[in-house]
Design goal:
The chain is α+β, with helices and mostly antiparallel strands. Among the domains are: 60-155, Beta-Lactamase; 306-457, Heat Shock Protein 90 (2-Layer Sandwich). The chain is 52% helix and 18% strand. It is built from 11 helices and 15 strands. It has helices at 2-5, 10-57, 75-84, 153-193, 195-206, 226-270, 275-301, 313-330, 350-367, 394-397, 419-429, and strands at residues 60-62, 69-71, 88-94, 99-102, 120-124, 130-140, 143-152, 309-312, 335-338, 344-348, 374-379, 382-387, 433-438, 444-449, 456-457. The strands form 4 sheets. A 5-stranded antiparallel beta sheet has the order 4-3-7-6-5. Strands 9-11-12-14-13 form a 5-stranded mixed beta sheet. Strands 8-10-15 form a 3-stranded antiparallel beta sheet. Strand 5 (120-124) and strand 6 form a beta hairpin. It is rod-shaped, with a radius of gyration of 49 Å. The two termini are 45 Å apart.
Length: 460
């Protein structure tokens, strides 16, 4: 699942945005609920102090003396204020500000002499505790009395904090599973919605050169995607037709040319050796070589069909040199080989690597002067072929590996300029590179580098 939402996929981006929106919405909701609850609890604390003042005012009754009042508190309330200490306080003043009644621990000097219009007041006591209070004016027997109640904000908020903590605990225990379930539902819904697209992507991935006729099913796909799938299917049909025609043409061409050329070569050889027959044989060999190169180019165009295996680069190079040794002797050229003592394993196709190395050596044999050596060396995963022919100009070194490109010195020789392009394509398929460097003095160094990352020296 993590792989599905990772990366830069549309599904991953959509899920990340939905998750972000959900988290922000949940956080905003949580903050809003907490803020509103805190405001409500603050109002509840104010209301609690006000209700205490109103409860106490009910015990203010006319006294026996004229213009006097009595405070008939029940014993349980007196006991409560006595045990509560300074946390809960009250006092009763007359109109002149004289204190008539008070709790045992009332900080009378901190109470406001003139209560505010809304009755609310706050002060900090001598012990540093903050107090919240409320003053209520009560008229009794034609006289006004102020009943003032105060309690520490800690005591006032104790119950509200308990309510708040209890609410938040319940909210977490309920909200967390809800959030997880919501995220799971969103993820499952998005994943199921993208299911047809994932299936279509898998079908597109199965289409290859070996099976270009496969089509992507258009059923159950969203209407917005169907036009793209139709275009892909149309492209696949055209690709399948083009590949089929190309393969048939190449196969027919090779069959129609190679067989009669082989028969022609045999017939010429049977006629005996003459200067004219030798020239004709060279031309026939060039045509056979061209047909084989065309087949190689066709195979390289279908790289997906090539099966890669672990092969010994040293062994392949040795075999190529052995096969070409008679040709070098016949042409009065020396072939020097080095670095093939230990196996070097690379991942690739043995036949293609063989043909690539042979093409380079054929090129060196054909374009280097007589009685000059051709030096072949293997170092790591890199093969170097050094000849002593004319140095290829710098401007042509990159182009020499292009198809149908030939060096100026080879213009009069047979060949179609496909050999080195086959070499370059082979190296590209194997994750390596083909290069050309000027040799010290006169000559060229052809490089076939299979890459140090994929090669390794085998144990001796």
């Amino acid at each position: 699942m993590l792989k599905t939402v990772a990366g830069n996929s549309l599904q991953g981006r959509l899920l990340r945005r939905i998750f972000a929106i959900c988290i922000i919405a949940i956080a905003v909701t949580f903050l809003t609920v907490y803020t509103q609850m805190d405001r409500s609890l603050d109002m509840l604390r104010d209301r609690t102090v006000e209700e205490q003042a109103r409860d106490l005012s009910a015990y203010l009754v006319p006294g026996r003396s004229v213009n006097k009042a009595a405070f008939a508190l029940p014993d349980r309330i007196r006991l409560f204020y006595a045990k509560a200490g300074p946390a809960y306080q009250y006092l009763v003043r007359d109109k002149g500000g004289q204190i008539l009644f008070r709790s045992p621990y009332a900080y009378a000097s901190y109470f406001p002499a003139v209560p505010a219009q809304d009755g609310k007041f706050n002060f900090v006591g001598p012990s540093g505790y903050a107090f919240k209070g409320y003053a209520l004016r009560e008229t009794l027997g034609g006289n006004d009395y102020d009943i003032e109640v105060a309690q520490t904000t800690r005591a006032a908020g104790m119950m509200s904090d308990q309510i708040s903590d209890s609410f938040m605990r319940h909210l977490v225990w309920i909200g967390l599973p809800f959030c997880l379930a919501l995220l799971y539902i969103i993820m499952s819904t998005v994943r199921r919605s993208f299911g047809p697209l994932a299936a279509a992507a898998r079908e597109v991935g199965r289409v290859s050169i070996t099976a270009p006729e496969l089509q992507v099913r258009e059923e159950e796909l969203p209407d917005e995607i169907v036009p793209f799938i139709k275009a892909i299917n149309f492209s696949f049909r055209r690709l399948a037709k083009s590949l089929r025609e190309q393969k048939e043409l190449t196969a027919n061409l090779a069959h129609e040319l190679r067989t009669p050329l082989s028969v022609l070569k045999t017939n010429i050889e049977m006629q005996g050796k003459t200067p004219q027959s030798a020239k004709i044989l060279r031309d026939v060999d060039a045509m056979i070589k061209l047909v084989n190169q065309m087949l190689d180019m066709t195979r390289l165009e279908y790289a997906d069909t090539i099966e890669m295996k672990d092969v010994d680069l040293s062994s392949i190079l040795s075999q190529v040199c052995q096969d070409l040794w008679p040709l070098f002797l016949k042409a009065h050229r020396e072939l020097r080989v080095s670095g093939v003592d230990a196996p070097v394993t690379v991942r690739g196709d043995q036949d293609l690597i063989y043909r690539a190395i042979r093409n380079v050596l054929d090129n060196a044999l054909e374009h280097s002067p007589a009685k000059t050596p051709v030096e072949v060396s293997l170092s790591g995963c890199a093969i170097r072929v050094r000849d002593h022919g004319a140095t290829i100009p710098e401007g042509l070194r990159e182009k020499i590996f292009d198809r149908l490109q030939r060096a100026p010195s080879a213009a009069s020789r047979a060949g179609a300029g496909l050999g080195l392009s086959i070499v370059a394509r082979t190296m590209e398929i194997h994750g390596g590179r083909a290069g050309l460097e000027p040799a010290a003095g006169e000559g060229n160094v052809f490089l076939l580098d299979f890459g140090t990352a994929q090669g390794r020296k085998a144990a001796a």
